[in-house]
Design brief:
This protein is an alpha/beta fold. It has helices spanning about 25-30, 35-45, 55-60, 65-70, 80-85, 155-160, 180-190, 205-210, 215-220, 240-255, 270-285, 310-320; strands at about 110, 115, 120-125, 165-170, 200, 225-235, 255-265, 290-295, 330, 340. Strand 4 (about 165-170), helix 7 (about 180-190) and strand 5 (about 200) form a beta-alpha-beta unit. Helix 11 (about 270-285) crosses helix 12 (about 310-320). The structure holds pyridoxal-5'-phosphate and iron/sulfur cluster. Pyridoxal-5'-phosphate (PLP) binds near residues 117 and 169.
Length: about 350
């Protein structure tokens, strides 16, 4: 992933801040994250040789300590560890696994603005994330010139000029990597566009860095005329720690609608029992399951793939066990489609 510098919406600042004493807790926590897989493995009492340096060079390793603490020491197959550990399998080539599996490159309407579907457009506001998921569909995304930034207002101009856009999705990277001041500016500019009714944030930070959900962010959520949906990203029930639940509750209390999307991942959540547990844990925390994505065939992630037949069988079991509203919609993204394709 690219760095945050240079192509941000507002002029770049030193990040993470060097003066720890002045840093807000989430930035301090981020600057303290694991950046070397061997250190995390040693910390978990595992063999550092399980990590593949060459894979980490292609897509850097990054895991906040709070997320690491939810992993089971001594278990090399831990479902949280598996999501973040660079392994040799990433270096294998597999037919059909490509750099841009979802056709992002073809959906660009302006710098930092993607539109694939009617009514909603997606703003790429940063390339940064707090944790690097090895299966990330944007792991090879050429962020360099693809983000909204201060010099180029074309994205906001395009939204303002198109009354058909009633919902704006903030994405990235992770939009909550912007600090509250920058988000406030963005919220203001979008609020000023009368035909925008809904604002959606696609973010994994409430799960992987819950300290990011600050009182200032929550008051931003509550202070807008826009209806706000926050789509978090949790794949396994163990990700929803007590701290995460507090962060979710704060956003819900501030008035946001909370949804979750997951990716169906081999060795992480590819069984009905884990997914049922995830849905129930989410609901207890005030979050409804939204999408369960079939893995996007991105180069380096083939070892996470679950076949269509297996995915269907898992969904059948899930539907037989859960109330309908706790069953996520199984979808996949095909380049050029009018929506995410439902898989019945
Ligand atoms: C996934 C996606 C959306 C959101 O789609 P929904 O079905 O509304 O959740 C919007 N824009 C783009 C470019 C997307 O990839
Ligand atoms: S949080 Fe999303 S964008 Fe960031 S690394 Fe994970 S999958 Fe990719």
């Amino acid at each position: 992933m690219g760095s945050q510098n240079g192509s941000l919406y507002l002029p770049a600042r030193p990040f993470p801040p060097r003066t720890l004493g002045l840093a807000v807790p989430w930035k301090r926590e981020l600057s303290d994250a694991f950046t070397q897989p061997e250190k995390l493995l040693t910390n978990l009492g595992l063999d550092p040789a399980l990590a593949a340096q060459a894979a980490a060079r292609q897509f850097p390793f990054l895991v906040p300590r709070g997320f690491a603490r939810l992993m089971t020491p001594g278990d090399p197959a831990d479902p949280l560890l598996r999501q973040v550990l660079p392994i040799a399998a990433e270096l294998e080539q597999h037919p059909g696994y490509i750099q841009d599996p979802v056709g992002d490159g073809q959906s660009r309407r302006a710098t930092g603005l993607l539109q694939k579907y009617r009514g909603r457009a997606l703003l790429l506001v940063t390339s940064a994330c707090a944790l690097h998921c090895r299966y990330c569909f944007r792991r090879h995304f050429p962020y360099g010139d693809a983000l909204i930034n201060d010099r180029d207002q074309a994205a906001l101009t395009a939204i303002a000029a198109d009354p058909g856009i009633t919902e704006v999705v903030l994405s990235g990277g992770d939009p909550l990597m912007l600090d509250d001041e920058r988000l406030a500016v963005l919220f203001d500019r979008l609020t000023a566009i009368a035909h925008v009714r809904r604002l959606r944030l696609h973010t994994r930070l409430p799960v992987v860095l819950p300290s990011r959900i600050t009182p200032a962010f929550c008051s931003l959520l509550g202070g807008s005329r826009l209806r706000i949906a926050i789509v978090i990203h949790a794949n396994h029930p163990r990700e929803l720690s007590p701290q995460v639940r507090l962060a979710l509750e704060a956003m819900k209390t501030a008035g946001a609608t909370l949804l979750n999307q997951s990716v169906l991942l081999r060795g992480v959540n590819d069984d009905a029992a884990s997914l049922a547990d995830l849905s129930e844990t989410l609901f207890d925390a005030g979050v409804l399951p939204y999408y369960l994505h079939l893995l996007d065939p991105v180069a380096g992630a083939a070892h996470f793939a679950v076949s269509l037949a297996e995915a269907r069988a898992i969904m059948d079991r899930l539907r037989a066990e859960m109330p309908g509203y706790l069953v996520p919609k199984l979808v996949r993204e095909l380049p050029g489609g009018a929506c995410k394709e439902p898989i019945g």
